Amino acid sequence: MAVTLEQTISKQESTWAQRLVRSQTFWVVVAIIVACAFLAWRSNAFLTPANLFNITRNFTFVAIIALGMTFVIITGGIDLSVGSVLCLASMTLAVTMHAGYSLEVGIVVGLLTGVAVGAFNGVLIAFMGFPPFVVTLGMLSIARSLAMVVSNNTVVFQFGPDHQRLLALGGGSTFGIANPVFYMLVLALATGFVLRWTRFGRHVFAIGGNEHAATLTGIPVRGIKVAVYIISGVSAAIAGIVQTGWLGSVTTNIGSGMELQVIAAAVIGGASLVGGAGTAIGALVGSALLEIIRNSLGLLGINAFWQGTFIGGAIIIAVAFERVQQLRSKD
Amino acid sequence: MPVLELKNISKHFGAIHAVNDVSLSLEPGEVVGLMGDNGAGKSTIVKMIAGNYPPTAGSIHIDGQPVSMAHPVDARRNGIEIVYQDLALCNNLTAGANVFLGREVRKGFGPFSILDYGRMYKRAGELFADLKSETRPRDLIRQMSGGQRQAVAIARTMLSNAKVVLMDEPTAAISVRQVAEVLNHIKHLRDQGVAIVLISHRMPDVFSIGDRVIVLRRGRKVADKRIKDSSPEEVTGLITGAIEQV
Question: Is B167 exposed, middle or buried (CB count within 10 Å of its CB: 0-12, 13-18, 19+)?
């Protein structure tokens, strides 16, 4: 035998190039580049600074929540309440600042709203054994209703003494790039770091891979499940706070239907709804692809009614890609 | 001195006497086959040793000291490791990650510590080499054969320098070709001085690597013999009740 056992054990199965080609995220990036090249060729408006500014800003809100959602999806769960939580957190921020409190107090109240909703979801799911789909579907209804109660279903557009600071936070730009883009990048780096380099991140993947095994090896499964729903709630609250600053007003219908865009973004980016797979970069590129599809339909003069068809098609292609990978790895 | 000793242990679930007055002991480096039909009390005994539930009567001793275990973590702390029948592995993680699951090695300090991939993969590779298993620490469990998965589950028990390893049907779910591989892993584990309880339905496994065989029937111990003094025919008779007791 020419090859020793030690050599076999230390051999690398695949090169980084092979792994890259197998990754779904890579192909979504390719799709984005192709779409951008096509749009730049067909539309004079696409490569204008104003349009690029809009695209990069528009997808950040979905992307920020998709980062939080990625944690939940990796554990094999789902959070349908994020659109409503975005609305509720925006509203608690708005009402607090409208009452004369500072921006800082408003942000803390908004974030605590996200924590509270996430903790409620997480405890019911992890400790009471409720299915995530049902609990967060209930919360989708509850949170939006509470937003109406808090605001008496009015539009809030005056944010007290720190009004201008809030608008600058979400609506301003730095070096020609919209501020929300920076928040998104920081959160994406943090998410990527936690998933790859911390024990918590490793345990999140373990729960999604085999929850029973995770329990048997002594991983605090319930605590981690509560934590991922809190992360999801907080990410929705952050997106809500930033979006409020951009829009300059809060209505009780903001964020409605957003949960589906967020889940779509995460899935297109390679997160698996059966759990065990997902990345931060995937959440970003998935959100970016959705926004570019939306933007391109407008620029190419295609009827906006087609938007749902294209986005739905992208989701199904993404899942088909995952399926092909699974079949191939079974051989 | 025996590393693990059960003294007159019983477990009753209401009127059902799952285990009745069973005593047994294990020496370091000994492989004991625990055999019996379904419902004979094998898994109840294993669950008591694993800390899943406390005995109704009797005591468990480790290195001569009585221990009380209320939780599987207590068993692990006492040097008892279990290889579950379904192996309790995460398919989406690498072999190395599975070996260190729940016991990840980190570098740095306090809140700034990060996973130490280098050390974990290196150590996992050493454990696979000890088991003479061609398992690459960086490969995903999903891509592995039944024998390799078994090696990962066994390597996990070696990480903590366990004194006693309980193996629940380690050869039940794998192809015939891989059975020999797994039995070799068990031998290598034994050679490191670990006492092994092998719960198995397969007579050839117990007779090829076991030192002793214990047979349970209806919650009672009906035989505790050296392998070389017994035969598969006798054990079959003891399991079914054709032979009352020896």
Answer: buried
3-state SS, one letter per residue, for chain B: CCCEEEEEEEEEECCEEEEEEEEEEECCCCEEEEEECCCCCHHHHHHHHCCCCCCCEEEEEECCEEECCCCHHHHHHCCEEEECCCCCCCCCCEHHHHHCCCCCCEECCHHHCEECHHHHHHHHHHHHHHCCCCCCCCCEHHHCCHHHHHHHHHHHHHCCCCCEEEEECCCCCCCHHHHHHHHHHHHHHHHCCCEEEEECCCHHHHHHHCCEEEEEECCEEEEEEEHHHCCHHHHHHHHHCCCCCC
CA dist., res. B118 & res. B137, Å (int): 11
Mutate to test the interface with B, among A3, A8, A9 (most CBs of B within 10 A): A9
pLDDT tens digit sequence for A34-66: 888 888 888 888 888 888 888 888 889 999 999
- Helices in A43-102 by DSSP H: which ranges? 49-74, 82-98
Separation between Cα atoms, residue A123 and residue A225, nearest integer Å: 8
Q: What span, in angstroms and rounded, lies between the C-alpha atoms of A314 and A150?
A: 37
- Neighbouring residues of A304: CB distance < 8 A, sequence distance ≥ 6: A297, A298
**Domain range holding A199?**
49-256+272-278
Fold of B4-91+161-240: Rossmann fold (3.40.50)
- Give how far the C-alpha of residue A311 lies from the chain's centroid of Cα atoms, to the nearest Å: 16
Report domain extents, chain B.
4-91+161-240
Flag whether pLDDT at A302 surpasses 90. no
**Nearest residue, CB atoms, B93 vs list A10, A209, A216:** A209
Let me know if residue A112 belongs to a domain: yes
For chain A, what is the domain count? Answer: 1
Is position A222 within any domain? yes
Residues A193, A180, A103, A262, CA torsion sign: negative
- Predicted ipTM of the assembly: 0.80
Say whether A212 and B102 touch across the interface (CB within 8 A): no
Which segment of A71-80, A317-326, B53-62, B215-224 scores lowest on mean pLDDT?
A317-326
Q: Does residue A301 belong to any structural domain of this protein?
A: no
Q: Which residue in B76, B92, B132 is closest to A208 by CB distance?
A: B92
A126 in a structural domain? yes
pLDDT at A1 over 50: no
Please name the member of A13, A196, A199 whose beta carbon is closest to the beta carbon of B139.
A13
Three-state secondary-structure class, residue A111: helix
- Phi and psi, residue B199, nearest 5°: -90, 120
Distance, CA of A324 to CA of B51 (rounded, Å): 42
**What are the structure tokens assigned to B117, written together?**
């991939």
Task: Tell me the C-alpha distance between A246 and A179, whole Å.
Answer: 9
| pLDDT tens digits, A116-175 | 999 999 999 999 989 999 999 999 999 999 999 988 888 888 888 888 888 888 888 888
